[in-house]
Amino acid sequence: VGYGVELGMLVDALHLVGLDALAQVDVGVRKHRHQDGQALGRMSAAIYRTAQLRLARGHLIRPSLTQFDRGEDGFEPRTYSVDTEERPPMVEIAEYATRKVA
Q: Where do the domains of the chain lie?
């Protein structure tokens, strides 16, 4: 769920078919016009946590991220939760399997 979906799929593919079956693509320049630096930091924390969970490493980061906004009197900490909920594979969802057969 969330921003780690693509990375989760990539790690699953690595475990399923191995590194030699994967390829890298240059997508050129990607600009995040709709997200500021703070939001991108939260997105990256969710992606990083997905990597740790999927790669089965035992040393996990906290499920929260503290960032600092510039305020009138200096920097102000703001803490956000990092969404780490995972959905089951589609083939394990009964409604999907039923729809696929029909």
A: 2-24+38-101
